[in-house]
Amino acid sequence: MYELFEVRNFRCFHELALTDLERVNLIAGVNNIGKTALLEALFLHCGAYNPELALHINAFRGIKREKVEFTSWATTPWDSLFSGFDTSRVVELVGKDHVTGHRSLRLKVVREPGELAKIRQIIQSGPDRAEGGPLSSEVAQVLELESQERKQGRPKQSHRYYMILNPSGLRIEPFPPPPPFPASFLPARARVPVNEEAERFSNLEVTGRQEVVLKALQVIEPRLRRLTMVVVGGVPMLHGDIGLGKLVPLPVMGEGMARLASLVLAIGNASDGVVLVDKIENGLHHSILPKVWRAIGEVAREFNTQVFATTHSLECIVAAHRAFSESGSYDFRLHRLERFDEAIHVVTYDQEALEAAIDIGLEVR
Fold first, then answer.
1. Domain region containing 307
2. Can you give the pLDDT at residue 72?
């Protein structure tokens, strides 16, 4: 789990430090303050070695890359990652977690002829040289990702990976290893594909832990007796038995059921890892939010998963605070992003501070 996280020159952030992190972290703040951007920064850091994730996070916002122009003046798909769209800056993401220790991630656009020449040598000496062809410094766009890890008692390790766009297409050099721990991003604008949900449910079923999902969904639908996978039109889809004499596809039971199932399945499939959720209250009625938060807390503890979520809802914040206060383990923090003098800062509320703020009606959204 993350103990701290720092962001520099990413999206709307010049510099931001997130400390006092807990198992479940809720991020609040007004519109356009950087809540989703903070989740995206965390997602990139969780990925550790793969620069291609820089393209994926735009898709979370519904932005599709239809065409890339390979000219020296073209806008690249990663320009929006840099603060003020200034690609002369260096994005730096720094975190301390229980798996990799202290790890920093640096993203920069490669422009210097000497650096481009080194990358050209890497490609031309690679095993798939014929497929990608030579790199032309006049037309290629290169994003460098440098990962540095430092564990206690061990020397610092540094690795570099490159995302290269040229007329031959997109390629990553060298091929990155898998991330150090599992991480999932649940965007606000799109549902998880049903086949991906099916795979996540199957992963829990293999280990006999599918009842965790059933118990959580009974918060919304008490009639739910069991969950199972049914193939419909060649596509596996989660179905439930609610006593109607036939199984009902989970999406048919309502957006709230689908949303909670996605949350629980993501948490259950990220054991010892991280789940990032944008606008966690989407599709959930305010009356069930306390039970939903109680279920999220229980599942996160069972699988040792850390959760970061955003919200605009005061009801969601209050529900989370009450649920964790009553759980016997207040492993929850509210982090509110605020803007002071054009800079974005974090105000963190522990249990006592949040209780007082709610009681006197302070704005914590």
1. 183-360
2. 52
